[in-house]
Write a structure and sequence with these properties.
The protein has 691 residues and is α/β, with parallel strands linked by helices. Strands 1, 2, 3, 4, 5, 6, 7, 8, 11 and 12 form a 10-stranded mixed β-sheet that branches. An 8-stranded mixed β-sheet has the order 20-21-19-16-13-14-15-22. Strands 17-18-25 form a 3-stranded antiparallel β-sheet, with no helix packed on it. Helix 1 packs antiparallel against helix 6. It is globular. It starts with 9 loop residues before the first helix and ends with a strand. Pfam families: GpA_ATPase.
Length: 691
């Protein structure tokens, strides 16, 4: 007689289920380990071509679309970006050329195919919060990532983590997101944010490193110390800042620096494509000490000369701008800038240019980028020396020479336009305003178009003091035939009519009425309540410019004035702060239970505007002014007191006053801010014309 086996108990069933699940998890881990070993071997065997092909075939952007391989530099850039034998790569670039997209693509490739832990850094927490959701959306459209995630759920019953602020996993492979900036209270004790602590990474990427605090990249590299790879691949990129900044220093220290080299179809000579040489032309100028120097922009950052087809007028020169040869001046057509057509190219055939001449070549050694990548793979030679690459704006299919020249000619921030728009590290206007320039402005005659006419505006600028206010009164002459208000402000000529002290805001009001002053620009500190009281009596909204009617822009009629109690002197209050991406911003502040407009102004913008107008020959000082360092009210002393550092900050020389420089800056920005004042709801109005 045979006895039936006992029925399994609930505990035994639970144990069997747990054992089965454990075996599945163990098998999944073994499979992932085997795939990691194979992925690493394939990556080092094939190098960047493996990443480039994967990006072409499998990568999808956050909207589900594949990459568009239209840029001539893209293929070779991806070959270098994805080559694991190159340990540290820094990319110098203009804005909006696809570096961030390439960083996300590289992250997706490494996590899905190589299966190693990663880290990705951003310059600030806000940038991290903006980009991590974009990365999440991108991963949702990539089939290989979703396949790994589904396999993990089936094998382990667990989903991959997807924390928006810190970590993300793909098949259990972890990526940590970090940002570089630190809280102000921690900057004394830490070089970097706490997000850079306690995580392993075998591959890392970093975006906009120019904005990182000093030493952060070194801290980030230490997170890779546990990696067992033959190299520790780190990819960093950014638009450059000033000369000697983080990006510029890394590029100068690199063993290999790759730039896009093209051949001119007219003279058959090669050249590295560069905005300084292929768009802007060099001009030999005399320096302050009498020597000569070859320059592309003036001291304010404005272009001196450029390639154009029609030089009959400035407008036509801008409209007909083109990319020219550095040697013969002939126009470089799109097909000459395109990449050399190759049979082994991964770019679709219909996007290739059979006559292309462009390729990345090292400036230091003459080595071609493709040759270096091939050599490293064949010889299995790790390259530990830093490598740099510049993505040229001029090679982009979206580059428009006329639009770029128009921006460079009219922008309020030339340095930023060159750094962001052209990807060039540049330092403009560093140091003190020179005394010879100030002396040249003394008695400088107005141009012919200003002669025989009254000024368009009289503007008072003031820097608050305890006993009295340091004030300047300026007369503004604006180009009569220019319809764009910002261009009128930029090209205006200013005559300094008076400078001195005014006692209290009663003194300011009396001066405004006696001299028929149109606009007043003042800082809000230290007596914000008294300044606000004056601003309530003569609000900035009492001035409004009708930008919709270009026909109304005529001589002596810049602004349509809405009279408040029959008086002028509209007050613009300013607070000098650090703004990012803005020159000034209008805001409302509650002062003594009332709303008062107070403009936040970037702390260098107004001072730069004064210096730039001086160097452009548009600031006219009284004849016969003498510099006297012993006279605390000497105008030239105040204009020479501050030193502009390479980071863009104006630093006051200890013991030297700079109040009149600030007063001039508030007058400058008051005129510009007047263009943006909202129209008041109920005010009578009438245009004005000075007698």
């Amino acid at each position: 007689m045979f006895l039936a086996p006992p029925k399994p108990t609930r505990q035994r069933k639970r144990r069997q289920i747990e054992n089965t699940a454990q075996r599945r998890r163990g098998q999944f881990s073994l499979d992932q380990s085997a795939l990691r070993v194979k992925g690493i071997e394939d990556w080092y065997d094939r190098g960047g071509i493996l990443f480039a092909e994967w990006a072409r075939d499998q990568y999808r952007r956050s909207n589900g679309e594949p990459l568009h391989w239209i840029e001539p530099t893209q293929e070779e850039f991806y070959l270098l970006m994805g080559n694991p034998w190159v340990e540290f790569l820094v990319v110098e670039k203009p804005s909006q050329v696809g570096f961030t997209e390439s960083l996300i693509a590289m992250l997706a490739f490494v996590m899905a195919e190589v299966k190693i832990p990663c880290g990705v850094g951003f310059e600030a927490e806000r940038k991290l919060r903006e980009l991590v959701p974009r990365i999440q959306s991108t991963f949702d459209f990539i089939d290989s990532i979703q396949k790994v995630r589904r396999s993990r759920i089936l094998a382990t019953g667990r989903k991959d983590t997807d924390h928006k602020e810190r970590k993300m996993t793909v098949g259990g492979v972890e990526c940590t997101f970090w940002y570089a900036s630190t809280a102000a209270k921690n900057k004394q004790e830490r070089q970097a944010s706490s997000t850079l602590s306690s995580f392993p990474a075998w591959w890392q990427g970093a975006d906009e490193i120019e904005l990182y605090p000093e030493g952060v990249l070194d801290v980030a590299k230490k997170r890779m110390s546990a990696s067992t790879l033959r190299t520790k691949p780190f990819r960093a990129g950014s638009t450059p800042g000033h000369e000697g900044g983080i990006v510029d220093s890394l590029v100068r220290a690199s063993a290999y620096f790759f730039q896009w080299r093209v051949r001119c179809p007219h003279c058959d000579r090669t050249q590295f494509l560069d905005a300084f040489g292929n768009l802007l032309r060099p001009v030999v100028q005399e320096t302050e000490d009498g020597a000569t120097d070859e320059r592309y922009v003036d001291i304010t950052g404005r272009p001196l000369d450029w390639f154009c087809r029609d030089d009959s007028s400035r407008r036509r020169r801008i409209e007909t701008a083109y990319i020219g040869c550095q040697h013969c001046g002939g126009e470089l057509p799109d097909w000459a800038i395109a990449a050399i057509s190759r049979t082994d190219s991964i770019v679709p055939t219909d996007l290739r240019e059979p006559r292309g001449t462009g390729e990345f070549v090292c400036v230091n050694t003459g080595t071609k980028l493709r040759d270096l990548c091939t050599e490293l793979i064949e010889k299995e030679r790790p390259l530990f020396d830093p490598v740099a690459l510049r993505l040229p704006r001029l090679a982009s299919k979206l580059f428009n020479p006329a639009e770029t020249m128009r921006d460079l000619a009219t922008t309020r921030n030339p340095a930023d336009a060159i750094q962001q728009g052209l990807g060039k590290a540049i330092t403009i206007g560093v140091g003190k305003i020179s005394l010879p320039r100030l002396q040249r402005a003394c008695g400088l005659p107005l141009p012919d178009w200003c002669q025989g006419r009254s000024p368009d505006l009289v503007v008072l600028g003031g820097d608050q003091g305890r006993a009295s206010h340091y004030c300047v009164r300026t007369a503004w002459y604006l180009p009569p035939d220019e319809p764009d208000p910002e261009t009128r402000w930029l090209n205006a000529h200013i005559v300094l009519e008076w400078w001195g002290h005014l006692h209290g805001f009663d003194g300011v009001e009396d001066h405004v009425d006696r001299h028929d002053v149109d606009l007043v620009g003042f800082d809000g500190e230290p007596e914000i309540q008294l300044a606000a009281a004056y601003a309530r009596k003569r609000p900035s909204q009492s001035v409004w410019h009708d930008r919709s009617a270009a026909a109304s822009v005529r001589q002596s009629t810049l602004l349509t004035h809405y009279r408040t109690e029959g008086r002028k002197g509209a007050m613009f209050l300013f607070d000098q702060v650090q703004l990012k991406g803005e020159d000034f911003r209008r805001a409302e502040r509650t002062i003594q239970d009332q709303q008062v407009p107070v403009f936040a102004m970037h702390r260098t913008f107004g001072l730069d505007a004064v210096r730039d107008r001086l160097y452009r020959g548009q600031l006219h000082l009284p004849e016969g002014l003498q510099y006297d360092s012993r006279d605390e009210d000497n105008l030239l002393l105040h204009l020479l007191a501050s030193d502009r550092r390479t980071d863009g900050i104006w630093a006051q020389t200890p013991g030297m006053p700079d109040h009149f420089h600030h007063a001039l800056c508030f007058a400058e920005v008051a005129v510009l801010a007047a263009f943006y004042e909202p129209r008041p709801k109920r005010l009578a109005f009438g245009s004005f014309k000075r007698n």
